[in-house]
DNA sequence: AGCACGCCGACT
DNA sequence: GTCGGCGTGCTC
């Protein structure tokens, strides 16, 4: 490779792109992506630092104008260059522009550019300032006079941005004043600890169980021998995975290394963080969506400076600028939250393994119900594998039973509660114990359909079914479109239209109907618009202020409620109807998690699963709490159908406002890919996306499958090139998705 | 961000 | 004419 693609280490939009430099012969061997380099820049060829983000033989800048790199900066691979290397890797693997990838790994990059408040302060007396102003006016130095007048007007202090925008003062003027000792520039940055005063560090001795100790010893002894790899820690809910994480973190931080702990955003609560804080004190920091840009930036600086060594946060915390990472932990690794839904659509588990390889760290993936991918790798020996099969203390696994709703209907029970669930609820009410009712859906009654023509009422923009809400309105869950419930079917005019199946609001109402004394809390997307309301509901329930908690997925994740002894799953098969290959996996995980909520304290727990498909293997396996049985069936299905992890699958998503153009271009792209004639690559489609329209944009998909991942990446690269070369693609958005989690 | 170039008013 | 401030454009 003759040329290096380099980004300049200056935060300025005009420089936020790739520059190309010739690689001197003696550097060709050593130069790698992510390295920091020095090179001549600009008219004066002043020495500039930057990072290598890639290589090319065909520069898109006149070769005779390309300058040569000076040298590679020494000092190993620094944290930032690790992140640059991550960006380059993500661009390559997941398909995005370098800019999109950089913004993902360096969110600070724009944030400081926007946020950094620089103020100008006059450091001469008022009299001297006035004298200078007079002098400037006299000499007709208009820019200097404007700045001085503004400064004097504002008591000697002025925001730099205001100086530029309002008083049209340019950088050279400010620099000159600074050199002459007339003013100083001050940037006000305070690094705050988001926990200051919240918690205390506690000395405490934890006795690990045999299983926990075996996992810690096994992983740490390999670590000490210099072995770095990825481990699956498969532990049932309540088996104490967190203690294993903390013990390992304690050991590696003693050696001067740092650790990153990823948690799904929804499980990232004060309780979780408190446990880490109590153990590691203010060496721990946290990232979450409620932090302001400024606070988030502070955490990055604190990490870079080395004043913390454990970072807890959602998937973006993976990009914490630590330089000596020893361990990356991903808790609840099966969660969909680890797959990004925006370009680059990266998978945090894969990205963690890549980052670990850059800095010599090990990775631990923890879950009670591992993703099929992770379980697959643990079984073929690629990952280490430890299990925690027993719950801590006296808690035992709950008793799970299944109810066939078809039988209930035959027996004349048309209520949403089966006889079995009803009597269990009645029993708990009498005993004063708590229960949770779980439904994988929100809104009053799901979709509304016509009994004459069978059509469901859909959103005109997004093509998803509208949901009926308690106030009689129909809402779109994607774009928020809302109409009144019509009196007749919009398609055929029949008056026989009605809601179908229960939503959380209706369940709440039914509970109150059958148990008038019950205190009910409801938790779904509608009642938890803000994070405060989410925590408020959970803590109220935890304090025993309600008997019944009704909710969607979010009630079954994290959170221990010792007094909950009954969990009811109202319609277990709803999540099986999702139109993607992960539906069975997701259903099994949800049901297992839901059942695991029961009996976390002294009393034994019970779970009742209602379903129309009791014979389905993911429901059967969940009832028996048998991961192995589920995995055997599921991997057979993936193998038969050629789905991940057996084969790699790549989605190409196209969207445009113009339906005809999209149709024509998608067809052309399909032909282009087919003509590449790649052996052992299967193309599915082109087809309409699961959502044929979203926010007034039409959507199409092409899926490709292959046992050889490299072939798909080759097709991706060729396609990217084709999109740049072929005319008419400007109005069409194209995205790639490796091993998609959800239907597009 | 920071350097050079070219414009424009003031002074020799 | 020439000196120096000031705005603008560009950086592989």
Automatic annotation (TrEMBL):
Binds 2 zinc ions per subunit. It catalyses: Couples ATP hydrolysis with the unwinding of duplex DNA by translocating in the 3'-5' direction; ATP + H2O = ADP + phosphate + H(+). Its EC number is 5.6.2.4. InterPro entries: DEAD/DEAH_box_helicase_dom, Helicase_ATP-bd, Helicase_C-like, P-loop_NTPase, PriA, PriA_3primeBD, PriA_3primeBD_sf, PriA_C. Signal peptide: none annotated. GO terms for cellular component: primosome complex. GO terms for molecular function: 3'-5' DNA helicase activity; ATP binding; DNA binding; hydrolase activity; zinc ion binding. Residues 484-651 form the Helicase C-terminal domain. The keyword Zinc applies. Belongs to the helicase family. PriA subfamily. Initiates the restart of stalled replication forks, which reloads the replicative helicase on sites other than the origin of replication. Recognizes and binds to abandoned replication forks and remodels them to uncover a helicase loading site. Promotes assembly of the primosome at these replication forks. HAMAP family: PriA. NCBIfam families: priA. This is Replication restart protein PriA. It comes from Hominiventricola filiformis. The gene is priA.
């Amino acid at each position: 490779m003759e040329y290096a693609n380099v980004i300049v280490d200056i935060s300025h939009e005009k420089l936020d792109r790739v520059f190309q430099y010739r690689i001197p012969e003696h550097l060709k061997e050593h130069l790698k992506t992510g390295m920091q380099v020095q090179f001549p820049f600009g008219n004066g060829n002043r020495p500039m630092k930057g990072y290598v983000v890639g290589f090319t033989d065909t520069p898109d800048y006149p070769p005779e104008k390309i300058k040569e790199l000076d040298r590679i900066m020494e000092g190993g691979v620094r944290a930032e260059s690790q992140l640059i290397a991550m960006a380059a890797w993500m661009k390559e693997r997941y398909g995005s522009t370098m800019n999109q990838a950089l913004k993902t790994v360096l969110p600070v990059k724009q944030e400081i550019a926007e946020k950094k408040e620089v103020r100008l302060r006059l450091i001469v007396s008022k009299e001297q300032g006035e004298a200078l102003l007079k002098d400037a006016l006299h000499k007709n130095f208009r820019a200097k006079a404007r700045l001085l007048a503004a400064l004097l007007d504002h008591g000697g202090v002025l925001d730099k941005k205001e100086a530029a925008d309002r008083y049209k003062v340019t950088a050279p003027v400010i620099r000159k004043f600074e050199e002459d000792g007339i003013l100083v520039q001050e940037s006000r940055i305070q690094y705050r600890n988001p926990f200051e005063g919240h918690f205390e560090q506690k000395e405490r001795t934890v006795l690990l169980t045999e299983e926990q100790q075996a996992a810690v010893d096994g992983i740490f002894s390999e670590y000490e021998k210099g072995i770095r790899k990825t481990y699956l820690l498969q532990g049932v809910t309540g088996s104490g995975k967190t203690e294993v994480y903390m013990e390992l973190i304690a050991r590696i931080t003693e050696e001067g290394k740092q650790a990153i702990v990823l948690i799904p955003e929804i499980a990232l609560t004060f309780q979780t963080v408190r446990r880490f804080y109590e153990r590691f004190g203010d060496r721990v920091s946290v990232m979450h969506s409620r932090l302001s840009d400024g606070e988030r930036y502070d955490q990055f600086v604190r990490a870079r400076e080395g004043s913390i060594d454990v970072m807890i946060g959602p998937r973006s915390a993976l990009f914490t600028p630590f330089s000596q990472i020893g361990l990356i932990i991903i808790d609840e690794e099966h969660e969909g939250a680890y797959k990004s839904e925006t370009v680059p659509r990266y998978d945090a588990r894969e990205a963690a393994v890549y980052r670990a390889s850059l800095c010599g760290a090990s990775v631990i993936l923890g879950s009670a119900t591992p993703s099929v991918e992770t379980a697959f790798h643990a079984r073929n020996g690629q990952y280490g594998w430890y299990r925690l099969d027993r719950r801590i203390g006296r808690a035992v696994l709950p008793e799970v039973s299944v109810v066939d709703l078809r039988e209930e209907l035959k027996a004349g029970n048309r209520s949403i509660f089966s006889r079995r669930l009803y009597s269990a609820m009645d029993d708990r009410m009498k005993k004063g114990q708590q229960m949770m009712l779980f439904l994988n859906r929100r809104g009053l009654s799901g979709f509304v359909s016509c009994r004459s023509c069978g059509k469901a009422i859909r959103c005109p923009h997004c093509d998803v079914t509208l949901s009926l809400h308690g106030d009689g309105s129909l809402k779109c869950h994607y774009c928020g479109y809302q109409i009144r419930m019509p009196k007749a079917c919009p398609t055929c005019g029949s008056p026989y239209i009605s809601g179908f199946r229960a939503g959380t609001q209706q369940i709440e109402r039914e509970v109150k109907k059958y148990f008038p004394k019950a205190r009910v809390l409801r938790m779904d997307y509608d009642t938890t618009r803000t994070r405060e309301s989410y925590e408020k509901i959970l803590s109220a329930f935890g304090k025993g202020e309600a008997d019944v908690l009704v909710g969607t997925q979010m009630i079954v994740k994290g959170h221990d409620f010792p007094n909950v002894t009954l969990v009811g799953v109202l319609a277990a098969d709803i999540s099986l109807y999702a139109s993607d290959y992960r539906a069975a996996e997701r259903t099994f995980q949800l049901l297992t998690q839901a059942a695991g909520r029961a009996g976390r304290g002294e009393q034994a727990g019970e779970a009742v699963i209602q379903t129309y498909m009791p014979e389905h293997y993911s429901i059967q396996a969940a009832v028996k709490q048998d991961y192995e049985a589920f995995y055997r069936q599921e991997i057979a299905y993936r193998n038969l159908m050629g789905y991940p992890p057996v084969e790699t699958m790549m989605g190409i998503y196209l969207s445009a406002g113009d339906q005809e153009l999209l149709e024509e271009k998608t067809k052309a792209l399909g032909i282009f890919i087919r003509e590449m004639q790649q052996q052992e690559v299967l193309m599915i489609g082109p087809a309409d996306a699961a959502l044929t329209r979203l926010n007034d944009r039409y959507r199409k998909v092409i899926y490709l499958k292959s046992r050889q991942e490299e072939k798909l990446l080759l097709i991706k690269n060729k396609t990217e090139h084709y999109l740049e070369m072929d005319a008419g693609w400007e109005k069409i958005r194209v995205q790639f998705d490796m091993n998609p989690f959800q239907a597009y």
